[in-house]
């Protein structure tokens, strides 16, 4: 009898646990996000119940979109890409020898 048959034992301490299609970290983000959305929805007056429900649906949908993997940049979540857009890296890389760079480009060989 193997102990891992009926239990969710992770092989490593840094292994991400997955529930359904979301990781535990993403589920915690969604719970906090939903709490913030519900607290912010108090700005609507009581007679605007339709707008409040629409705000909840759009807010939760946006939260789900934030934790989903990006289609264009695999391995990153959408919220990570937004952070990279708001806080870009300040470093620039320039070729020290432009002739070698052009020669590699013409030959079709990119050496890394």
Please tag this protein with its features.
112 residues; mainly alpha; two-stranded antiparallel ribbon; flat
Report on this model:
The chain has helices spanning 24-40, 49-67, 78-86, 98-107; strands at residues 18-19, 22-23. It is mainly alpha-helical. A two-stranded antiparallel sheet has the order 1-2. Strand 1 and strand 2 (22-23) form a beta hairpin.
Quick structural overview:
The protein is mostly helical and 112 residues long.
List the helices and strands and how they pair.
Blueprint lengths: L17 E2 L2 E2 H17 L8 H19 L10 H9 L11 H10 L5
Antiparallel strand pairs: 1-2
Helix pairs in contact: 1-2
Note the total helix count.
4
Helical content, roughly? 40-55%
Q: What is the SS-derived class?
A: mainly alpha
User: In what range is the share of β-strand residues?
Assistant: under 5%
Low-confidence stretches: none
Give Rg in angstroms: 23 Å
The counted number of beta strands is 2
Distance between the termini: 49 Å
- Sketch the topology as an H/E string, one letter per element: EEHHHH
- Order of strands, main sheet, comes to 1-2
Largest sheet report: 2 strands, antiparallel
Outline: flat
């Amino acid at each position: 009898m193997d102990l891992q048959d009926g239990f969710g034992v992770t092989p490593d301490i840094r292994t991400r646990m997955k529930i359904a299609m979301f990781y535990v970290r993403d589920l915690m983000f969604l719970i906090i996000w939903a709490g913030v959305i519900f607290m912010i929805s108090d700005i609507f007056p009581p007679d605007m119940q339709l707008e409040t429900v629409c705000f909840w649906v759009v807010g939760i949908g946006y939260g789900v979109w934030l934790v989903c993997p990006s289609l264009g940049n695999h391995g990153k979540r959408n919220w990570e890409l937004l952070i990279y857009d708001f806080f870009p890296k300040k470093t620039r890389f320039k070729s020290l020898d432009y002739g070698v760079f052009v020669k590699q480009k013409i030959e079709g060989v990119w050496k890394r």
